[in-house]
């Protein structure tokens, strides 16, 4: 891939590719806009991707280990967080390829182009769908006090399988449209080929996944956490409110990392489908915003383990239990850090109201 800060950026999330931009200009006999002077340094982006890869590989592997080790006290929320860590880990495995492509262009063929692009899409959709399921689980446990429903793990397994299936379905446009080739103007690229009816397909392929894979799960989270917080404050359940802080932090970080990109993508869709006026200045601003928000979205895959380590007391205790079991730390040291419950996420709130 070319430098992601280029005026006609060909990045993995940008459904309106630079090549489409170029051909649209030619078809309308319009002169293309000049390339802006601002750009993100491609070596800086490569370093960021490499660091995120290392942190994500280490952190998410540790999270998976801790959750699997805590089989007896594993809660429904823990199972969702396990799947979230797996999604982040799978995405992290593609980061070295994207990092290298920022320097040399896309040299890995169409098949790998489709695969790594698919991993990114599945990571995003599975992430927000899993967070929506966690919000429903907490809503049922705290607002309606339905412990029996939220503790049936065999149902959770089917829910997780459904989430992975839906994420793959929402990511199908990537499999169908991604191509790798050498462009005379842009070198080796990995981008979507939408055919002749680019505006219609771009609108359909953007709006449907955005609605079902982002807007609806976000509304579910807002509804569930809104009523959950109200119940906790009205009942003055200070302990359970503190126990929710890990999940709130995970949701907040997810939104801070991915919401800016999705808002920019909405603006880009409106511009490219001529719902709002398309100007050179506006195209330049949106391309720059996509460049920045994409890096922010990539950063998300390594942040959840950091949240668990600094906020989740039960995660730290579970990790210490593993170290103590293998003789790395003493049992006396472990006893000094013992807490009342050994569930992985302090957000689990295993006891319903």
Molecular structure report:
With 353 residues, this protein is mostly helical. It has a single domain (18-305), classed as Rhopdopsin 7-helix transmembrane proteins (Up-down Bundle). It is built from 15 helices and two strands. The chain has helices at 18-27, 42-69, 76-92, 95-104, 109-142, 147-150, 153-170, 172-177, 198-234, 238-243, 245-272, 280-299, 303-311, 313-325, 331-336; strands at 178-183, 187-192. A two-stranded antiparallel sheet has the order 1-2. Strand 1 and strand 2 form a beta hairpin. The radius of gyration is 22 Å and the shape is globular. The termini are far apart. The model is unreliable at 1-31 and 340-353 (pLDDT under 50). InterPro entries: CCR1-9-like (IPR050119), Chemokine_CXCR_1/2 (IPR000174), GPCR_Rhodpsn (IPR000276), GPCR_Rhodpsn_7TM (IPR017452). This is C-X-C chemokine receptor type 2. Belongs to the G-protein coupled receptor 1 family. Residues 59-308 form the G-protein coupled receptors family 1 profile domain. Interacts with IL8. Interacts with GNAI2.
Topology:
Layout lengths: L17 H10 L14 H28 L6 H17 L2 H10 L4 H34 L4 H4 L2 H18 L1 H6 E6 L3 E6 L5 H37 L3 H6 L1 H28 L7 H20 L3 H9 L1 H13 L5 H6 L17
Antiparallel strand pairs: 1-2
């Amino acid at each position: 891939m070319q430098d992601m800060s280029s005026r006609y950026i060909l990045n993995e999330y940008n459904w309106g590719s630079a090549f489409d931009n170029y051909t649209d200009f030619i078809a309308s006999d319009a002169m293309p806009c000049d390339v802006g002077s601002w750009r993100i340094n491609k070596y800086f982006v490569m370093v960021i991707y490499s660091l995120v890869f290392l942190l994500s590989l280490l952190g998410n592997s540790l999270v998976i280990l801790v959750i699997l080790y805590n089989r007896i006290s594993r809660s429904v929320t823990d199972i969702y967080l396990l799947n979230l860590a797996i999604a982040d880990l799978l995405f992290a495995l593609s980061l070295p390829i994207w990092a290298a492509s920022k320097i040399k262009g896309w040299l890995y063929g169409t098949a790998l182009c489709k695969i790594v692009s698919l991993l990114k899409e599945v990571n995003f959709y599975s992430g927000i769908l899993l967070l929506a399921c966690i919000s429903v689980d907490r809503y049922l446990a705290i607002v309606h006090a339905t412990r029996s429903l939220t503790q049936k793990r065999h149902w959770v397994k089917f829910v997780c399988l459904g989430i992975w299936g839906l994420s793959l379905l929402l990511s199908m446009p990537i499999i169908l449209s991604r191509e790798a080739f050498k462009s005379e103007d842009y070198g080796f690229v990995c981008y979507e080929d939408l055919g002749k009816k680019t505006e219609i397909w771009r609108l359909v392929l953007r709006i449907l996944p955005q609605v079902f894979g982002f807007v609806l799960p976000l509304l579910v989270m807002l509804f569930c956490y809104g009523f959950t917080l109200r119940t906790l404050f009205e009942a003055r359940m200070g302990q359970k409110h503190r126990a929710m802080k890990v999940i709130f932090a995970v949701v907040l970080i997810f939104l801070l990392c991915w919401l800016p990109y999705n808002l920019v993508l909405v603006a880009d869709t409106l511009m490219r489908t001529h719902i709002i006026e398309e100007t050179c200045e506006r195209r330049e601003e949106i391309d720059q915003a996509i460049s920045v928000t994409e890096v922010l979205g990539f950063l998300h895959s390594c942040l959840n383990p950091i949240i668990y380590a600094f906020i989740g007391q039960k995660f730290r205790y579970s990790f210490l239990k593993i170290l103590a079991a293998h003789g790395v730390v003493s049992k006396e040291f472990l006893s000094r850090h013992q807490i009342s419950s050994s569930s992985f996420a302090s957000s689990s709130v295993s006891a319903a109201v």
